[in-house]
Amino acid sequence: MRILAAMSGGVDSAVAAARAVDAGHDVVGVHLALSRAGGTLRTGSRGCCTIEDAMDARRAADRLGIPFYVWDFSERFRDDVIDDFIAEYRAGRTPNPCMRCNEKIKFAALLERALELGFDAVCTGHYAILVDGPEGCELHRASDEAKDQSYVLGVLTAPQLAHTYFPLGSTPSKALVRAEAAERGLTVAQKPDSHDICFIPDGDTRGWLAEKVGTAQGDIVDRDGAVVGSHGGAHAYTVGQRRGLQLGVPASDGKPRFVLEVRPVSNTVVVGPKEALATAEISGSRHSWAGRAPADAEFFCHVQIRAHAEPAPASAVVREGTVTVRPETPFDGVAPGQTAVLYDGTRVIGQFTVDRTVSAVPIAG
């Protein structure tokens, strides 16, 4: 096959490209420039997509003896990921930019161009497994549970999965990938993983949003609507947050309080006890299926609501374009804007963006 290897400049994508070469494929490496004002250097494990990352990707491609190009996707990235991130926070929601990047950039814009140029598939260093199932390609969890990235890949559709290649999915551990990179003479063998939002490399999401969205004083209220504090902008808060609350009135029981709800229209943040975070139901209309759609309108599954959360057993209902999930045990706080990924064992069924949550402990007001 003709394979376009997306090379971020990290160890995973470099080894993935190397394995594609070893498998006998015709491989071309490409690095995506996602910012026209990208930093020159990384700071430890913060951020990615810097000039240093592009240089690391080029060195890896040279070592593998494959052609290498840098493609400017910065405008598409700004429109589909950064602007979406800002808009979601303005609306009082908590987005996952990695999901949007996979959905809109790596497996939409990049894959579209790859297919136009005659490539058969896009190869990445994601940890997930593709299986030829009875009804087409299936997306499954990686062998290494600690590195499994099937959650952030849950936005992929059947046509996209058919043109995707994940060489690392069956590798038992990341340590083996690093050891392999060292054996191959790849200089990125011990390069730290990036773990921050790539377009906020200093990790200060609140400060970054304040520059983009602005600040506006508002009230922090309890579940009864009584004012207990103030804030400089509701966009800086998310459901489940405990730190950074400016509360002038202590709770009657003396226990910590958490953000229960963000109301952007009134610029109000609602706080309450931890037990009030219990979520009995979530639903959303923006959904997709990773392969075949569920055969029944109602089915049992496991649901994961964060990248590193434990999957929870739940019942799911698909009705009139909306997916509704009711966990057997209430979720511990879910914010609108989060992504819920549905699993059948290790197989990803699909995903939806949470639009609505129902608390197990109703909030007044």
Descriptive labels:
365 residues, alpha+beta, nine-stranded antiparallel sheet, five-stranded parallel sheet, 20 strands, 24% helix, globular
Q: How much helical structure, as a percent, in the residues? A: 10-25%
How many runs of DSSP E, i.e. beta strands? 20
Taking pLDDT < 50 over at least 5 consecutive residues as the criterion, the unreliable ranges are: 40-46
The helix count comes to 7
Succession of helices and strands: EHEHEHHEEEHEHHEEEEEEEEEEEEE
**Between the first and last Cα atoms, what is the distance in angstroms?**
59 Å
What profile does the largest beta sheet have? Answer: 9 strands, antiparallel
Q: How would you characterize this protein structure?
A:
The structure is a single chain. It is globular and about 65 Å long. It contains 7 helices and 20 strands. The longest helix is centred in the N-terminal third of the chain and has 20 residues, at 97-116. The termini are far apart. The chain is an alpha+beta fold and 365 residues long. Strands 12, 13, 14, 15, 16, 17, 18, 19 and 20 form a 9-stranded antiparallel β-sheet that branches. Strands 3-2-1-4-7 form a 5-stranded parallel β-sheet, with helices on both faces. The chain has helices spanning 11-22, 51-64, 74-90, 97-116, 158-161, 174-183, 205-213; strands at residues 2-6, 26-33, 68-72, 121-123, 129-133, 136-140, 164-165, 218-221, 227-231, 258-263, 268-272, 278-284, 287-289, 298-304, 312-319, 322-327, 331-332, 339-344, 347-353, 356-359. Helices cover 24% and strands 28% of the residues. Residues 40-46 have low confidence and may be disordered.
